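Appendix B. One record, verbatim.
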Amino acid sequence: MERWVRWILLRPGFISLKTYGSSLWDWGVVRSTEGNWIFGFTWHACVCDSLRTKLLAILRGLSLCWEHGHRRVEFFIDSLLALGLITAYHPLLHQYACIIGSIKSLLRRSWVVHCRHKLREGNVVADHLAKLGSTHASVVSVWSAPLDGLCPFCKLMYLVWLF
């Protein structure tokens, strides 16, 4: 089966939040409608399973967007499981019910957030941040400008792979 992975054109006036979580780090990048860098972040998540770090990446990314005053957000994540947990019925007995509840509470605030699935291969900048985060000494890092090595990825508006 062929699948195309590409940058998705945003609705006018929205910013893009793309997150990713692994067993050690969660990270994300926020860009304007035109694809310009707004900020990026990495967070040391401790050693845990990837679903927990994906949920924490969502929580931290949405919290940072709110704190920075962004009220129209297109949110992309590569995990259908995490996406389903935050957009469907809240499972009160889930082991991560507190994190899921915190995300749902954020989503109920007075703003517009569209949650969408995107394959990890289409999240090149966040993937690069993952590699940087794993070598970074700080527990929390938020960057208002792209770091060295990220600029080639940030300038790409339409990045397409076929696999």
